[in-house]
Write a structure and sequence with these properties.
The chain is of the alpha/beta class. 20% of the residues lie in helices and 32% in strands. It is built from three helices and eight strands. The strands form two sheets. The chain has a four-stranded mixed sheet. The two termini are 18 Å apart.
Length: 152
């Protein structure tokens, strides 16, 4: 296996990428590594159709949340398909710091647009586990995992 192999989460945001980036920066301490707008892309690709409405849309963004890269764009990968928020994928944020996990949960749920699916609480596999849905339809699992202290 290549030491340079990386798997990143990629979210198509249906025109809400800029808002999602700000949300993740505010509530999950995401660091913005890259942000390319349609206007930036049009400078590289003269065939791109740029309008006043789309020029500030996000063509590609990369955030770093802890050690995980999260990529976002406005459009879906298959532009012929109608955008549908699916329930087949979610983000799972794991942390060995219980206090920080509780802080993330409190910060996320302080936003009135966030829906709590499973309140953060102790269960059979974690001292703290919860699920929320962010304002963009993305389900986020939050889990305290002390195994991460041992590099698991």
């Amino acid at each position: 296996m290549s030491a340079t192999l990386e798997v990143a989460i990629f979210l198509s945001m249906n025109g809400k990428a800029k808002e999602a980036i700000q949300f993740y920066k505010e509530h999950l301490n995401a660091e913005e590594l890259l942000l390319v707008t349609y206007e930036d892309m049009a400078k590289r690709d003269k065939t791109m159709r740029l309008t006043e409405e789309n020029k500030q849309h996000i063509a590609h963004a990369v955030l770093l949340i802890g050690k995980t890269k999260l990529m976002l764009a406005e459009a879906t990968m298959d532009v012929t398909e109608h955008y549908v928020v699916g329930n087949h994928s979610s983000l799972c944020i794991q942390r060995a710091d219980l206090e920080e996990m509780e802080h993330f949960y409190k910060s996320l749920t302080s936003d009135e647009r966030v829906r709590i699916i499973v309140p953060l609480s102790s269960n059979v596999f974690s001292k703290a586990y919860g699920i929320i849905e962010d304002p963009f339809g993305i389900q986020i699992q939050l889990m305290f995992d002390e195994r991460l202290l041992n590099g698991a």
